[in-house]
């Protein structure tokens, strides 16, 4: 069913710089036969909601992979390819440059290249939560794995203190559910974002995703966990359904003619 969001002009940006310290070349690392970047590009294209899908990179190899799987490539300025540059810096600079060339968008969606299991529907439903003027921020969210109300803070001396001492002794079911942005998909009102450079604000909506589709790969352990879930999801899709048994009427012997 069409929504007001379907009448807006949407831009997808996939930041994918070449340098990564904890997991080398993580944005194009091999993942079940393809560079990991390919999965995000394919999901964005299948969402059929974006006017443009742009991979922002300074790396020639990443640029080739992006083009091979159907994305446009923006040659990221060198000063925005350092460890100190933020994703917000990259996206604001790109929006401003596009605006100078006469191209404006209603929304911008940030897609992490390393969230390989987020699918087209996850993207589409997150984007549709943004209604400029009513709700300018939306993100894909997942439930905290551990009880967040029992979170601890460790100081320089190694001592622990409760972050929420008034809630720490309560049962988890009495505190309620806590959600966290999983980073895979974030959508903002493009003009508001150009002005404040923030992916968070009010009002803000969230599209809930299961943890198994929300793993963001930043380290080797994340990669192994995501591969585990990817294989599990594949098994679910390929598992043959049980055929319904057809009840047959028992054969009856023909009566002998008297």
Biggest pleated-sheet summary:
7 strands, mixed
What's the CATH superfamily, by name?
A: Spore Coat Polysaccharide Biosynthesis Protein SpsA, Chain A
Instruction: Compute the number of strand runs.
Output: 11
The CATH architecture can be named as: Alpha-Beta Complex
| Oligomer type | single chain
> Which CATH C-level class is it?
Alpha Beta
What ranges have pLDDT less than 50 throughout 5 or more consecutive residues? 249-258
Strand order in the largest sheet:
5-4-1-6-10-7-11
Helix content: 25-40%
Task: State the CATH topology.
Answer: Spore Coat Polysaccharide Biosynthesis Protein SpsA, Chain A
Structural class: alpha/beta
Count of domain modules: 1
Q: Per the principal axes of the C-alpha atoms, what is the gross shape?
A: globular
Contiguous helical run count: 7
Tell me the span between the first and last alpha carbons: 67 Å
Structural account:
It is a single chain. This protein is an alpha/beta fold and 258 residues long. The chain has a single domain, classed as Spore Coat Polysaccharide Biosynthesis Protein SpsA, Chain A. It is 28% helix and 21% strand. It has seven helices and eleven strands. A seven-stranded mixed beta sheet has the order 5-4-1-6-10-7-11, sandwiched between helices. The longest helix is centred in the last third of the chain and has 19 residues. The C terminus is likely disordered.
Key features of this structure:
about 260 residues; Spore Coat Polysaccharide Biosynthesis Protein SpsA, Chain A; alpha/beta; two-stranded antiparallel sheet; 7 helices; single chain; 11 strands
């Amino acid at each position: 069913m069409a929504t007001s969001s379907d009448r807006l002009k949407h831009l997808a940006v996939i930041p994918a710089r070449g340098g990564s310290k904890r997991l080398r070349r993580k944005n194009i690392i091999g993942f079940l036969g393809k560079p990991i970047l390919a999965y995000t590009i394919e999901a964005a294209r299948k969402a059929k909601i974006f006017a443009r899908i742009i991979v922002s990179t300074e790396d020639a190899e990443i640029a080739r992979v992006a083009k091979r799987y159907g994305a446009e490539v923006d040659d990221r300025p060198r000063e925005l390819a350092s460890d100190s540059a933020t994703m917000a810096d990259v996206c604001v600079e790109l929006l401003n440059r596009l605006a100078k060339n006469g191209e404006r968008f209603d929304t911008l969606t940030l897609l992490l290249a390393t969230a390989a299991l987020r699918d087209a529907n996850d993207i589409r439903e997150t984007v549709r939560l943004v209604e400029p003027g009513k709700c300018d921020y939306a993100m894909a969210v997942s439930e905290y794995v551990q009880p967040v109300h029992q979170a601890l803070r460790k100081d320089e001396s190694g001592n622990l203190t409760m972050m929420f001492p008034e809630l720490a002794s309560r049962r988890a079911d009495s505190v309620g559910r806590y959600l966290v942005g999983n980073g895979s998909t974030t959508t903002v009102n493009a003009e508001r974002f150009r002005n404040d450079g923030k992916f968070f604000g009010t009002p803000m909506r969230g599209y809930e995703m299961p943890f198994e589709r929300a793993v963001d790969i930043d380290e080797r352990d994340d990669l192994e966990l995501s591969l585990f879930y990817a294989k599990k999801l594949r098994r679910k899709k390929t598992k043959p359904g049980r055929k319904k048994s057809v009840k047959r009427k028992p054969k009856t012997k023909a009566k002998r003619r008297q």
